[in-house]
């Protein structure tokens, strides 16, 4: 690990917007284009080093993915109509499209490049908001994800010599692919806060999922009841995550910031605001500085309110990483709002807040209510994992 330059990197290649499952699919790449435009509208592109990394090559992809699966993606990329559904390709969630291998490998390459830059000290923080495709499995596509860039970034850190990498996933869906990739590896601590698997895809992420016998307590799952709002979400995060990160002492922190926890998101049932999302982004930044010498790789993820929520949420993430945090009450530049209307015929939001800032919540240290559903979720996670890590539940 070299010394830090301090400057943040924003990983971006315009071609990532070619990650397009077609008209009507929830994962509309306009969300990436509009995020990049909003970053520029606030001048944040001048506060970071914008870097386009090369696509992940086959040897890199094989750090996580099976060779037969990579070949199936390549074949579907050439002939989408012949996609092999046994690999999760050519399905409703993951339709095959021409060039899918190339653009998926390009997104993965941005996350791997972010990890390399942070490990080598070329940047203290690096953001790839096109990444966070956390459902892809070693041998198959799943949940709008072809290659698991988050897992690949972590695997590359291990290959470079990292001995402890922590992964925090606050997407509304369980970070199942990343958990699966490192299930048996005690060098990686995966923590996922998500809507309860009883009510949401992928129906995994139960608190009892705590890692293989070779890595007890290396997987942490906080399964939140549907309807959880800002105060509960922040309470759960702070009741579980900081204590585990402090104990684990990661050399690098990798975080996934799916914006689909939002109350406007059409695919899930949490009731979190943009302001709470920003608060967790700040908390992750602070945890990196407190416990990982500032080394932070931040990724995007889900998020299907593609105009109202995603661009604002990830612009906040870029601002925080750049040490130029955008105040919540900031008015959004009119030029961006006009572009949104021109591209989508939707009215754009006016400010960088949902009007919930600042958010107050009760800390865990003040006690808990065993009859409260949110506190039950926190207790289940703590009781499942904390003793395995030598911590008091």
UniProtKB/TrEMBL annotation:
Histone deacetylase domain location: 25-318
Superkingdom: Bacteria
Pathway stated in the Swiss-Prot or TrEMBL entry: Ketone degradation; acetoin degradation
Keywords associated with the record: Acetoin catabolism
Keyword Membrane: no
SUPFAM superfamilies xrefs: Arginase/deacetylase (SSF52768)
Sequence similarity: Belongs to the histone deacetylase family.
Descriptive protein name: Acetoin utilization protein AcuC
């Amino acid at each position: 690990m070299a010394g830090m330059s301090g400057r943040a990197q924003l990983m971006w290649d315009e071609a990532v917007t070619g990650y397009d499952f077609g008209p009507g699919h929830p994962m509309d790449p306009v969300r990436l284009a509009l995020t990049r435009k909003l970053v520029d509208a606030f001048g944040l592109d001048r506060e970071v080093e914008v870097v386009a990394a090369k696509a992940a090559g086959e040897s890199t992809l094989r750090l996580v993915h099976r060779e037969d699966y990579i070949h199936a993606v390549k074949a579907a990329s050439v002939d989408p109509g012949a996609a092999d559904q046994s690999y999760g390709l050519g399905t409703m969630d993951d339709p095959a499209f021409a060039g899918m291998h190339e653009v998926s490998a390009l997104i993965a390459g941005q996350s791997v490049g972010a990890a390399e830059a942070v490990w080598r000290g070329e940047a203290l923080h690096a953001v790839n908001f096109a990444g966070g495709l956390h459902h892809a499995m070693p041998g198959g596509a799943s949940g709008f994800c072809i290659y698991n860039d988050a897992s690949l970034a972590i695997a590359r850190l291990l290959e470079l010599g990292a001995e402890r990498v922590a992964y925090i996933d606050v997407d509304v869906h369980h970070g199942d692919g990343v958990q699966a990739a490192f299930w048996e590896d005690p060098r990686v601590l995966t923590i996922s806060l998500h809507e309860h698997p009883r009510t949401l895809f992928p129906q995994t992420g139960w608190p009892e999922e705590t890692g293989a016998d070779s890595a007890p307590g290396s997987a942490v799952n906080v399964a939140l009841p549907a309807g959880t709002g800002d105060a509960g979400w922040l309470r759960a995060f702070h009741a579980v995550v900081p204590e585990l990160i402090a104990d684990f002492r990661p050399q690098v922190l990798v975080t996934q910031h799916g914006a689909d926890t939002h109350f406007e998101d059409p695919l899930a049932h949490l009731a979190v605001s943009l302001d709470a999302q920003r608060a967790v982004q700040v908390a992750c930044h602070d945890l990196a500085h407190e416990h990982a010498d500032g080394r932070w790789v931040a990724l995007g993820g889900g998020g299907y309110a593609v105009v109202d929520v995603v661009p604002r949420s990830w612009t906040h993430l870029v601002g925080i990483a750049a040490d130029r945090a955008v105040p919540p009450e900031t008015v959004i530049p009119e030029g961006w709002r006009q572009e949104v209307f021109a591209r989508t015929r939707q009215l754009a939001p006016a400010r960088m807040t949902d009007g919930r800032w600042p958010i107050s919540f009760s800390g865990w240290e003040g006690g808990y209510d065993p009859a409260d559903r949110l506190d039950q979720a926190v207790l289940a996670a703590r009781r499942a994992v904390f003793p395995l890590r030598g911590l008091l539940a």
